[in-house]
Fold this sequence. Notes:
519 residues, alpha/beta, Beta-Lactamase, Rossmann fold, Helicase, Ruva Protein, domain 3, 5-stranded parallel β-sheet
Amino acid sequence: MHRRSKTSNVNRNAKDAFSFTSKEQAFLYSIARDLLNGRDYGDLLASLLDATIQALGADRGCIVVYEGGKFRTTAERNFRSEGLLDIEEKISRTIAWTAVEEGQILVIGDAQKSERFRTRSSVRRLGLRSVLCAPMIARDEAFALIYLENRDISNCFGERQQQILGEICSLAGPRLHAAVDTAQATKRARELENLTGETDGIISSDPAMAKLLQSVAQVAATDLPVLIQGETGTGKELFARAVYRRSRRTNGPFVIVNCAAIPATLIESELFGHVRGAYTDAKQDRIGLIASANRGTLFLDEIGEMPFELQSRFLRVLQSGDFTRVGSVRQETVDVRVVAASNRDLETEKDAGRFRSDLYYRLSPVTLRVPPLRERPHDVAILANHFLKAYAARYGRVAPILSEECAAVLSSCVFPGNVRELEGEMARLSAVSAPGEMIPVTALSPRMLGRQRKEPQTNAFIRPMSLAEMENKLILSVLEHTNGNRTRAAEVLGISREGLRAKLLKLRIGDTKNAVGAE
């Protein structure tokens, strides 16, 4: 960052030289009012840029943040570009750097005739004419820029526009600087979290989970889409966050979209954004969740709930990063990594025609399957004790202790709600149990006591049969258990999907498609 104490003097001298008209005062008041409300950071930037372009009569403009010696575009308007990434190549870095270094507003009537800038390569390459570039200052730091252009030389910027823009920057600087500080603090917290442990909040002693975490570490460094499948409550969001935290995108946002929680009539606008007038209540432009995830990770939870007709539009984002806002014809482009999760088997949904096959194939090359809690009973006691301590600390008391009998009963439960259900039970026990006391099995809820799995009858008579017939019955039993999902059945049997297919053909089960699921 560049400290320039003289900047405030420049702005103050400009204020002394001009008095604002009533129209200009009303405009500046509207800017101040916008800055004081609790609007989303991205929406605030977009609104500020739109208002500034309109008030100063600019053709186009952008807001860039200066960090780590580089410029990063956070909002843009009217650039004929492929997207936010390309804007940084379509502004004059020479002019931007000069504004940051000097900490002063630069007003250039005609860059082609400017003694200072006409020979600069960026000015010649871009064919720049009138440019207005102002640093935003907070604590004597130039941390961001408002960059405006006019292509029509008959409408070049002058001292009046310079004065108004200076006032806008004075008003907006502290508010936007606070948002940048918050983002940097969040980044430092993530770095500290990564230094203190690599489990990403995933607690397990199960070999399958350890293998899954290893897969997370391997794929996180890439930009490939990731599909996380698992039952409700298994912790799919934790794995999505683990992919994000171990990726190269931790400087960018992690944006969560719960496709099941957003009404079908609103999800398109929420995802892609909209322009003013796109529909009755669209009174201003809105940045969608896809655009807000630029340079970061977009987590689509319960993607199986995404409306079928919307899936083709989202497929284009996955393929090229291109999208258009609702009501707009202007194409935009984002750089975003997609992590999706579903408690449904998307291959089955695809086969049933409820999920687009092209979207499924784009998402599924990297698929992480989170095992349910009933398949890793040794994790139950570990997780239970973790939750007891966490909730006791929240209540400011000593954690109660699970008795051996209680832990044994919990380990034998099937947990249809998985880790989330176990957490809820431990939260209740932590609240109702005496601090530091042993929790008896009678303290478990009746619902939990009814969750115990039924033990198989070990002395049941098995009639004599051939190995082929026994293998036949075993395969059919596993396929029934997996609802006909051959990929999952192959995993349970410990063989490849092609190996399972060969056995089905050999045992002549292939023609019972309804019983074992389609290919």
